[in-house]
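ARCHIVE CARD
SHELF: 3
SLOT: left
DATA:
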Amino acid sequence: MIFITRRLEFCASHRLYNPSFSDEKNAATFGLCNNPNG
């Protein structure tokens, strides 16, 4: 019997961000959850 497999990675991430805050205030308020790449 032959098995063919494929390994995939999936990242279901989110970003906490308030557009009315400055970048510095968003970073201070949300910390690591403010990463634009999730």
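SLOT: right
DATA:
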Amino acid sequence: MNNLNIEHRKLLHGQDYVDKFDKEQSAYRIKRLLKYVTLSKEYVVADFACGNGMLLDHIHDKVEKYIGVDFSQPFVMSANRRMSNKGIENAEFICGSIKQFCNIHNNIFDVGFD
């Protein structure tokens, strides 16, 4: 996938893929991962390549703030709907380049997920 330009990647991660993502990705893998991560109500957490924000469901009540970043506008829209439907207020989703995001938001996160 590294040989694909950004437009091709966006096409691959478009609405069709977003619609299938929840069915194909398991919350079980997130629960397994979280057993090995320490979180605190004071932590600001970044979720790089956040997709539809599935991780948010599992950590929003364990952290001060969650910020998800993804280059796919359909995924960010799906993540925002998920957040709104669940009434979660300590999160935000940003559509853009992870590299540019990190350059602007340097050293402000306590934990990062990729």
